């Protein structure tokens, strides 16, 4: 490897023409200049300086190396400037892993806004479900994991991780538009839905466990009539009048699906959405931008009618 400091000596020599003048400009001895130039020639395995009459001059190889060195010095100056901008928060590069609805309603609007407010930042988004996002964080494949409260999260106080709350997200009941309960402004699990046909995910999934726990707290076990793996399938079954479902608000926010209404649940379940980083990492400016996006979602929205 070529020592950059020796390249700087070579550049100074080309500017000042003599070893003595170069030494004076660099604040070192002439012997030190000669030693550095000799060491650089040894590293490159070509002569860089030759005697011409009573003075030393650059060889052709020396001039070629100096031309390349100017490019290297320019890049180093850019790197130093970028590091200064990074230190002051105006430049950064972040890889974000998030679950699908978190991307749709939190990460995407946050990154879109930051493109205008923080143009020096570069974001790369990767879909990563909660059971995988922490592992990706550990291996360095992502810098921020947008995830939710679940058994897959590291325990609070785990070394190597920092937890940053993003939002507390309610779960809402999705009903066919002509369902008798569709006219109610708010539903009660225990009295309204204990005998309903439920559309749920498979046991053992975060979605199923959250809904089942809420129903158990209300005093009944939900009758899981249809089992799906994603929210769009649940919405299709609800719209067809085949049952009811309870989904996180991020799952339906911003959608317009025919023949469905969404109703909040009195004292219903909630899940915590978090940004997880490695210890010492700074989640800003993305964290603030996601919280602002989350605020627009959690503000009460009346009857939550999707579409008739």
UniProtKB/TrEMBL annotation:
Would the keyword Repressor turn up in this protein's UniProt record?
no
Provide the alphabetized UniProt keywords: DNA-binding, Transcription, Transcription regulation
Domain of life of the native organism:
Bacteria
- Transmembrane intervals: none
Report the GO terms under cellular component: protein-DNA complex
Where's the HTH lysR-type domain?
A: 2-59
Q: Name one Pfam family in it.
A: LysR_substrate
- Report whether Aminoacyl-tRNA synthetase shows up as a keyword of the record: no
Q: Which InterPro entries match?
A: LysR_HTH_N, LysR_subst-bd, WH-like_DNA-bd_sf, WH_DNA-bd_sf
Classification via SUPFAM superfamilies: Periplasmic binding protein-like II, Winged helix' DNA-binding domain
The terms under GO molecular function for this entry are:
DNA binding; DNA-binding transcription factor activity
Family assignment? Belongs to the LysR transcriptional regulatory family.
Q: Which PANTHER family match?
A: LYSR SUBSTRATE-BINDING, TRANSCRIPTIONAL DUAL REGULATOR HCAR-RELATED
* Protein name in the entry: LysR family transcriptional regulator
Which lineage is the organism of this entry classified under, starting from the top rank? Answer: Bacteria, Bacillati, Actinomycetota, Actinomycetes, Streptosporangiales
């Amino acid at each position: 490897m070529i020592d950059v400091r020796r390249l700087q000596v070579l550049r100074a020599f080309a500017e000042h023409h003599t070893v003595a003048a170069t030494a004076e400009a660099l604040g070192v001895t002439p012997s030190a200049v000669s030693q550095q130039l000799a060491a650089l020639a040894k590293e490159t395995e070509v002569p860089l300086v030759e005697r011409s009459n009573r003075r030393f001059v650059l060889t052709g190889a020396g001039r070629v190396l100096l031309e390349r060195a100017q490019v290297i010095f320019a890049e180093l100056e850019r790197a130093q400037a970028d590091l200064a901008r990074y230190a002051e928060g105006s430049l950064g590069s972040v890889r974000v892993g998030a679950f699908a609805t978190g991307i749709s309603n939190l990460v995407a609007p946050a990154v879109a806004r930051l493109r205008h407010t923080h143009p020096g930042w570069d974001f790369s988004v990767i879909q990563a479900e909660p059971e995988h996002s922490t592992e990706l964080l550990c291996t360095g494949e992502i810098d921020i994991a947008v995830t939710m409260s679940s058994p897959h999260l590291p325990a609070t106080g785990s070394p190597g991780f920092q937890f940053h709350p993003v939002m507390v997200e309610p779960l809402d009941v999705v009903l066919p538009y002509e369902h008798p309960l569709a006219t109610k402004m708010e539903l009660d699990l225990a009295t309204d839905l204990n005998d309903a046909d439920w559309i749920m995910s498979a046991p053992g999934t975060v979605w199923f466990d959250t809904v089942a726990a809420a129903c158990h707290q209300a005093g009944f076990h939900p009758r899981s009539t249809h089992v799906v793996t994603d929210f769009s399938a649940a919405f299709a079954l609800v719209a067809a009048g085949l049952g009811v479902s309870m989904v996180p608000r991020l799952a339906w926010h911003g959608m317009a699906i025919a023949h469905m209404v969404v109703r909040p649940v009195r004292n219903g379940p909630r899940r915590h959405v978090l940004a997880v980083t490695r210890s010492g990492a700074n989640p800003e400016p993305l964290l603030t931008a996601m919280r602002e996006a989350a605020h627009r979602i959690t503000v009460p929205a009346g009857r939550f009618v999707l579409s008739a």
